[in-house]
Amino acid sequence: MALHWVQYRLLGLKPAGYHLFNVLVHGIATLLVFLLVRRALGSMDRPGWGAFAGAAIFAVHPVHVEAVCWVSGIADVLASCLVLLSLYVYARQPDRIASGLLAAGACLLASFVKEIAFALPVLIVVWDFSVGTKPATVRIAARRYTPFVAACAASLAARVLALEGLVPKGANGWQAMLSAPWLLARYLGLLLAPFELNVMHSFAAVRGLEPRLVVGAVVAVGLVGVGLFAWRRAPALSLGIALFAVPILPVLNASFLTRHPFAERYLYLPSAALAVVGGWCVARAQVASQRVRLASCLALAPVVVGLAVSSAERMGVWRDEVSLWKQTVADVPSDPEARYNLGRALLKAGLAPEAVPHLEAAVYLRPRHVKARNNLGVAYVQLGRIPDAVGQFEHAARVRPADVGIRVNLGRALTRAGLARRALEE
């Protein structure tokens, strides 16, 4: 919220500045990914082609479109950028006090922006024991890691005070725990095969022992197994797996605080794992024969181009509200929020006749959807269907009697219906 306030003071209501800021932060994050992959691969990637390939994958991956194109997505982009900055500053000079404090400061800022920053202490330990320098003594380890643990603990304490617990009241912790493995599998699948992109992915919670729970558990165990197997044989691969799995863990719990627990923007930081793994593959190919190097280039080029083309197509969907919600409704026609958002966008565009069917569908799918009923009433008024508008406003007012805007709309509709006395009561 503080960031949006600063942006508003500097940029006003001009959207171009907000979008430019998102793109700039994404560019900085891409640079940090390049630097981290280069450091993680070390002498194995002396020409730097592995780090370049990894950064290219990160830069154009289509799962980033939501976080970068959506103005409110800056929280995920900025928090991830701060996490990457903290990790890079630490990795350069892990035993220098100034570097540690600077990295811990970035960690603290990131933790107040987004909960993915709580993964940073674990990522730093994984870095040290995989591709970095292991602490020689317990004292050195304590000096290295304590600032990060303290930063996360301070932020977590503030969150607990604000939420009156680790999660808000009413959140189903057992349901979140059962669904977490399948969510993990879904996120991994979308990262590796970003074909079905949507701003509102459908996700039904796992409620017991069912195939989705088993598949998710197998994927989770498989990731742990591959990470442990590669720990000594290919440390960068272990780091890559940790970069995916560890930042996604807070999201698997916090995601059930919303109606849509599966969202592409949550993959922004975990997608750095693909950059590490892709960079490792290219670096391995560089030390092989010329035929292998050529084959790796021929395999990588269409992947990067394909990801870039997919991102460009997805950015076209995000060009305005109507195009975004039209695509969303086409993908999830039974989602009341998608229907409502499309109807509201069409109504704002002055297309009341096109808005009515979608607002009616939202009301049908969720009868107590107050905003949909209020907007449907407004659309009816614009079309001259005053009795229908009065009915929608009255229903919305019964559900939310203290809403002044609904009462005003109801009074105006009653006035147009010739019921001035009832209008005065509203």
Tell me, rounded to a whole number, the average pLDDT: 86
Oligomeric state, counting identical vs distinct chains: single chain
> Count of DSSP E strands?
0
Helix and strand content put the structural class at mainly alpha
Distance between the termini: 35 Å
Shape: elongated
Strand content: under 5%
Radius of gyration: 25 Å
Put simply, the count of helices is 20
Let me know the largest β-sheet.
none
**SSE run:** HHHHHHHHHHHHHHHHHHHH
Helicity, in percent?
over 70%
Low-confidence stretches: none
Summarize the structure in words.
- The protein is an all-alpha fold.
- It has 20 helices and no strands.
- The protein has helices at 2-11, 15-41, 49-60, 65-69, 74-92, 97-113, 120-130, 138-163, 173-192, 211-233, 235-254, 272-286, 290-317, 321-331, 336-348, 352-365, 370-382, 386-399, 404-416, 420-425.
- The longest helix has 28 residues, at 290-317.
- It is elongated and about 85 Å long.
- The two termini are 35 Å apart.
- The model has no long low-confidence stretch (mean pLDDT 86).
Layout of secondary structure:
Layout: H1 2-11, H2 15-41, H3 49-60, H4 65-69, H5 74-92, H6 97-113, H7 120-130, H8 138-163, H9 173-192, H10 211-233, H11 235-254, H12 272-286, H13 290-317, H14 321-331, H15 336-348, H16 352-365, H17 370-382, H18 386-399, H19 404-416, H20 420-425
Helix pairs in contact: 2-3, 2-5, 2-12, 3-12, 3-13, 5-6, 5-7, 6-8, 7-8, 7-11, 9-10, 9-11, 10-11, 11-12, 12-13, 14-15, 15-16, 15-17, 16-17, 17-18, 18-19
